[in-house]
What we know:
The complex is a heterodimer of chains A (439) and B (471).
Chain A: E1 3-6, E2 16-22, E3 29-30, E4 35-40, E5 45-49, E6 54-59, E7 66-68, E8 72-77, H1 131-135, H2 141-150, H3 168-179, H4 222-237, E9 240-248, H5 250-265, H6 272-286, E10 292-295, E11 298-301, E12 307-309, E13 311-313, E14 316-318, E15 321-322, H7 330-345, E16 359-362, E17 382-386, E18 390-396, E19 399-413, H8 419-434
Parallel strand pairs in A: 12-16, 16-17
Antiparallel strand pairs in A: 1-8, 2-4, 2-7, 3-6, 4-5, 6-8, 9-19, 10-11, 12-15, 13-14, 17-19, 18-19
Helix pairs in contact in A: 2-3, 6-7, 6-8
Chain B: E1 3-10, H1 14-25, E2 30-34, H2 41-46, H3 48-65, H4 83-107, E3 111-121, E4 124-130, E5 133-142, E6 146-148, E7 161-162, H5 164-167, E8 176-180, H6 184-196, E9 199-203, H7 215-227, E10 231-233, E11 237-243, E12 248-253, E13 259-264, E14 266-269, E15 273-275, H8 282-285, E16 289-290, E17 293-295, E18 307-309, E19 314-315, H9 325-339, E20 354-356, E21 362-366, H10 369-374, E22 379-385, H11 390-395, E23 401-407, E24 413-419, H12 423-435, H13 440-445, H14 455-464
Parallel strand pairs in B: 1-2, 1-5, 2-3, 5-18, 7-14, 8-9, 8-14, 9-10, 17-19
Antiparallel strand pairs in B: 3-4, 4-5, 6-15, 11-12, 12-13, 16-17, 20-21, 21-24, 22-23, 23-24
Helix pairs in contact in B: 1-9, 3-4, 3-6
Amino acid sequence: MPTPVLMPQMGESIAEGTIVRWIKKVGDAVDRDEPLFEISTDKVDAEIPAPAAGVLTEIKVNEGETVAVNSVVATIGAASEISKQEPLGSAPPPAAPSLDSVVPRDVDAPPAKPAATPRKTNGRTAAKPSEDDSRKQRSSPLVRRIARDNHVDISQIHGSGLGGRVTKNDILEYIDSETGTGDSLGAEAPGAKAAGSGTRDTGLGTRAADPGSRVEIKPLSVMRKKIAEHMVMSRRTSAHVHSVFHVNFSTVERIRQQKKAEYEQLGTKLTYMAFIAKAVVSALRRFPIVNASLDGDNVIYKKDINLGIAVALESGLIVPVIKHADEKNLLGLSRAIADIATRARSKQLKPEEVQDGTFTITNPGQFGSQFGMPIINQPQVAILGVGTIEKRPIVVDDAIAIRTMAYLTLGYDHRLVDGATGDQFMAEVKQQLENFDAQ
Amino acid sequence: MAKSFDVVVIGAGTGGYVAAIRAAQLGKTVAVVEKQSALGGTCLIWGCIPTKALLEHAHALKVIQHAAEWGVTIPPGSPAINMPQVHARKDKIVGGLTRGVEFLFKKNKITWVKGTARLAGSGKVDVVEGDRQTLEAREIIIATGSAPRSVPSVTIDHTRIITSDEAIHLKEVPGSLVILGSGAVGVEFASIYRRFGSAVTIIELLPRLVPVEDEAVSAELEKSFKKQGITVMTGTKVTRATASSSGVAIEADTPDGKKSTINADVLLVATGRGPVTTGLGLEEAGITLERGYIKVDELYRTSVPGISAIGDVITLGTGVHPQLAHVSSMEGIITAERIAGQPVQPLNYDHVPGCTYCDPEIGSVGLTEARAKERGYDVRTGTFPFGVLGRAKMAGESEGFVKIVADKKYDEVLGVHMIGPRSTELVAEAVLALRLECTVEELIKTIHAHPTFSEAVGEAAHAAHGAAIHM
């Protein structure tokens, strides 16, 4: 019996996924739960295991294509069931690039769940259309052609025509707003460019590459696009200010050395990050405004402390979230941090594990940076950047002493958090770390 | 006690009467003030309808003149036009249509106020001639239209130097007719009176006939006109026209720098139409004008709240506003619906079809090749001649072509320009194609019935993509 392979539902708000890579080819034998293909949604990238053992007999959705969740993407059958027209081991059949069959992307902004950010991108639909609606998004032959050439998902565009029909102007304005170019006639497709055709105007009359120059042009990954969008949106949304504190980690270092062996026995590593997380949670309790969001004229105070930890990946960045971080002790936090970091790197995160963060910690120090000036992860209002932790000469009791030190930076949204509050919050973090109570 | 209405429309031309009907359909009480004795305005009484009626007479004569080719034997002697009968038939058509509008007014309970309107401020309209009274209106729509306008060097005397208003009523066919201006009005009368037997000269200031059309269309029309014996003088400036009892002497500067004098029985001035605003009290009402036209926004609101304007009398401030009946009526519908609180969208003036009923006729919509290039498109075109089609051969119509102007990048149909048999009808497909944002590929995939003239549209699309099938 052939088993259909479905595009998995990776979370409630996810309507579709893009197949990034087929790990197995038609004709390959697969075991149950063996990684079969890699997907990218607007929340996470993940490897999808085979639902049954057998032979991959047919691939219905090619790499780079986006389909609705629960669409059949492949079939696993007995070896004899390989499609007749598909000789063993050959390339997957070219699926017709019909836009109509491809369900549009979820229009939710990434982790903007409880408090919607005041984001109103040009031409975006206000509400997520139901799957059925988006299939029926009305457009014109010309709009579909422009969408195809520019890899634009028509369902993301607000149609100004009769009955919500997406018109040429709508899609050109959408492309302009997405790319920041003013060139409404000739918005170039980032992915569909012939080599040597150059890149689009950056809006300042400059191009990233002139036609014919020696460059290689590659389309952005889904994750890269999301990061780009999110970062620019955040800079536009929040009034970023930064406070930098110099923190003595000697006490933390002492406890870490004492407890190292004990933690290793318990199966985890005791890292500085766990201490920092603990100190941050404690400070967030004292300063709830830092664990909040701004929504129009309202402040939304989050009752839970869900700590996002930025994890660098080979080709991007993801912020998995430790839910209810305030309910965890040092050991619990250590375990949680190690777990999400490992799973983030192996693409094993579930979509809900990157949602609902209320505060984020990022650690540029691991790469040697003295301190960072991080951009806030919307719709949060603050982010802590951890600089490199190293021994430095400092003045103690009018003498120069060697201590384990680090710069911590708080990036915060001045719309909601004033300098005094931000600094008091940081003073609290510093105090907690320098006088860390191991109990 | 002033009579009060939701909407008072000034002018019962195509813009005004359509706006009135639409407003009435949407539940508004409506009055229309009209100074002429019949409803319908320029289109029905002076323009579209009578001229096209005359053109059908010309066409009938053309077929009869070629009777031998059709295998039809007629008694000896050359066929001739009988002007009194022509006018009788034409006037009957016009009368039927204006009474049709009267019927529609009654059906929709629209009050027809006979007289001349003048804005009286704060939602009031004075009727100063005819049924003198003051009307109160929540909303006023000005739809007073346009009238023929001359150039400074030529003074209209209405007998020897005439406009289209007289040209539709000429009791006899002039022996020689000079037409000044080669827009739609000029070339249509050139076709009519040439067919009726006049020696026709058409003078155009710009370098080509029908200057708003695609250059290829102009060239084809000039070729055909010359074949028909019409003298075409482009790039020629008329400096003076002197009427006498025996005719008109027209002095002109030709493009080679020479002065030339042309004598004719009649000079028809067809150099354009200006707005009709005299006596309306626009300035007193505080309405902003631009070059004499009423300035409106994209939903036809004037600078004064509660007063809208549509049709030939307006300018949107974005270049030349087309003075066409179908534009006025669409503007009337949009305005009535906006007043009634319905959702409306601005008109796309790139999608306005133009139909010129000269012989061969012209139908066009969208950007010309030159205009598309000006806008920065990477243009490709496809042209297919009617003469190749079986249908055209049967009809004995071998002139003309369909030309598609498209954007190379996204394959968008930017403009369709046709000259030749049934072009004014065939353009409808092209208008829909532009409205629905069609690509050339979609036109190629659209089945064009055989044998029809419309096959030329499908073939021109093929040609734009490389090669027509039947060429």
